[in-house]
Amino acid sequence: MLSLVASTFILPAQAELTEQQQKIQQQILSFAKQHLHDQQPAVFVLSGDAGSGKSAVLSAVFSELQQQAHQSDAPLAGTKNYLLVNHNEMLKIYWEIAQQQSFLHKKDFQKPTPFINRCEKLQQAADIVFVDEAQLLLSQADRFNHFLADNQLDELLKWSKVLVLVLDFKQVVKLKSYWSEQMLRHHLAGYHVKFVHLKQQLRLKSPAVAAWLDQLIMGKLLPLPTVHDYELKIFPDGQPLFNWIKQKDQQFGLSRLLATTDFPFRVFSKEPWYVEAGTLKLPWDRFNYQDRPWASQPQTLHEVGSIYTIQGFDLNYAGVILGPSISYDESINQIVVDPNKFEDQTALQKRHQADLTDLTAARSQLIKNVVNILLKRGRYGLGIYAVDPALRYRLIELETKKEIK
């Protein structure tokens, strides 16, 4: 039976990092030792696609670092280090990790804003600061999150001796936390920086499916790959997709329905808001007040997850509903994106900074990033239903041709 210990990047007890992950782990530790006492902060940037194992590396490095910090004879003994992540659900996973190791504590894992505000108040810097999902760092002031400075990266540079950023620019999902490689390099100019890219795909078990999804996200619909190591299915209606997910969850566990944020919702609402996909009508995920991540709670099988509950997590099987903002133009044989149909308009609000010359293109890219995140959650299988009729028919046509071969 296929089953994960949890819907997270935490490796099972018997598992090990890959050779490339182990190499990067040692690079980060060596970098920290080498630059801890420099006159200005040094920055290690680890990038990689969704499912490449970035968080697993980060978790392993931080655990080893904190173990050394509590050993009097270790090279990094006595250092004050923190791991930050601007994502509530991922923070809960790191808190779970803290409960499993005596040298880790809940306070070691924080969100960026409270960390920055505390350093500012105490006028006290940390030694080594890790940032997971660093593409979620705010790049402008945000009163809702009690962050009043220009951007969180510049503030973290003020309060860190060594800064380790783990990111994927294809997982940027809000304009208020918009980052590009060009912007990142601009803010890091003048600092000692090392860039490393993690080139592997550990989540999706089929390279052919991963390549097909990359083309889809760019707008190109290619023939579906005929593979035996991954289950890729297209559905004509949301209800059979949901039935498939329920079956997979019963068989293998950790199978959930997900959707692009194309359906009405209100954060913190007491009343449920619904996703409608053909004959299917299910409630959106609710704000998760529990310590357990959304996907690991059994009742969430009867909800629809979003990027806010699933980003950074693994599933065995994922069913993805592509909402109205994702459509198909037969005349050009392209998938097209319409930001005006995207319900998560707060994610697309205009930036205060004038650092984006083409806001329309940026908004479209953010929606593509949402699609990228959702489609790459399932380790062993993916089911897709498209609300747009033209896109749905084209996907079904491609699957039919695949089956004829």
Overview of the structural elements:
This protein has 405 residues and is of the alpha/beta class. It folds into two domains: 19-198, Rossmann fold (3-Layer(aba) Sandwich), CATH 3.40.50; 207-404, no CATH class. It contains eleven helices and 15 strands. The protein has a six-stranded parallel β-sheet with strand order 3-2-4-5-1-6. The protein has a five-stranded parallel β-sheet with strand order 7-15-12-8-11, with helices on both faces. Strand 2, helix 3 and strand 3 (109-110) form a beta-alpha-beta unit. The chain is globular, with a radius of gyration of 21 Å. Residues 1-7 have low confidence and may be disordered.
Defining traits:
Rossmann fold, six-stranded parallel β-sheet, 11 helices, 20% strand, DNA replication initiation protein, SLFN_3-like_DNA/RNA_helicase
